[in-house]
Amino acid sequence: MSVRQHTLAPNTAFATPYYVINSHRSGPVFMIVSGIHGNEPASIAAAQALAGKFQRSELTLGRGKLIIVPLVNQRAYRRKSRGVPDLNRTFPHTAKYRAGHPLSDALFALAKRHRPVWYLDLHEANGLSQHNPRRVGQTLMVSRGTRAASAARRIISIMNRSVSVPSYRFNIKHRERAGTSRMAVQQLLGAKAVTVETCWSLDFALRVKYQQRIVRHFLKAAGMMN
Ligand SMILES: [Zn+2]
């Protein structure tokens, strides 16, 4: 296994690191993206922690290739803001349409180059979906009827066995919104794409733990980790 650090949008004000973890064995390409919104710190911390664990060989990739972009929008993160414009509305809607921001353009180009089979976009949100089904906190968001949706449903049932507080349990959320990175990689690159949302009001360390655990369940489901 090798772990290489690269730079997304190099030589621009938006430059940010990403990691390519290569098992050097055949298998799927899996992409994890976090920090498209700058004010969702647990998802960013989880992606950074996972990259660090692979760098220190505390985690091993058994098959395929894993790409982690832990903090897409560095500027928004420093300002603790979601980001202006909202990057997750600027990804290409159609193959002819170009992304509306240098960061979403660079991120989509990276995905296009690697053609991920799996794509996880890590986020955080307000509210608990168990309390209010209109809230997206503690959900996995997918497009209805996709293979990603059935995988997400299985992972939610595995995850929820280890979530002791009933109101913290995860639900599936069906949502389609053009311009999001999930919809772009799903529709234009054919990836199995899922948005992970933890709830802001929970303890930070717990949110980081949930995010990491969900990622690892998906990597196991993809046959890339034990
Ligand atoms: Zn978000």
From TrEMBL:
Q: Which SUPFAM superfamilies match?
A: Zn-dependent exopeptidases
- Cofactor entry: Zn(2+)
InterPro entries membership: AstE_AspA_cat (IPR055438), N-alpha-Ac-DABA_deacetylase (IPR053138)
Q: Name one GO molecular function term.
A: metal ion binding
Look up keyword Metal-binding and say if it applies. yes
Name the source's superkingdom. Answer: Bacteria
Succinylglutamate desuccinylase/Aspartoacylase catalytic domain segment(s):
27-198
Tell me the protein's name. Succinylglutamate desuccinylase/Aspartoacylase catalytic domain-containing protein
